[in-house]
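Quick one: structure tokens for this chain, please?
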Amino acid sequence: MPILAMYGSKSPAMYTGEKLLRVWPHAHFRQVVDAGHFFPMTRPDELLMNHAALLSGEFDQVARHRQGEEPSNHFRSDRFLLRDGSWYFHTRENTWQGPFSTKRDAGQGLARYLRGVSAA
């Protein structure tokens, strides 16, 4: 039975999630960036997209460990966010870029952004 554990990055329950990383090595842990404890009410689209990805097997198709990482469980977050009908992408500089009309457009925006960062 697949397990999906989702936590808002600003939720006090993140502490519990961090402990469960060791207890449930087969589970998928997702962090909802800039979300609090009640993110299922405030950002239901992200909750539903993650559930759909779990049930479709999408999470099992992605490497659970990045090259060079220890083989342990980690919280992962989606770089893309659907908010109020518009798409955004999150950077490592902790900024949101957008809005974009589709997730594909946001992906293309991310590619342009990364090319710009690489050229700098």
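Residues 79-120 form one domain.
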